[in-house]
Amino acid sequence: MSVQEIPTQVDLRKYIEVRLFGERPHIRGRRIPVANIVRAMQMNNLSVAETAYNFSISEAEVLAALLYYEEYKEEIERQEEEEARLFEEMKRRYGSD
Known about the structure:
Blueprint: E1 16-17, E2 26-27, H1 34-44, H2 48-55, H3 59-71, H4 73-94
């Protein structure tokens, strides 16, 4: 019996891509940013299963989003801050209606 090595790095490209939303990471083939998944789980104390159900994605996609967030947390947080800043700028410029 051979002993399998545990990978030191997991390739999440099957689940996560960055080609949309100004390179904000999101679920592959969907327009659901990783940050939205993480925030929903944190704010609502959701389980992986509940999050998958709420976003209509698989549990594997939720887990991939969590892993990706942990790996790139600082970069994702910077992107989210920039998105919030742009949103506020647009809101001031064009109003909230």
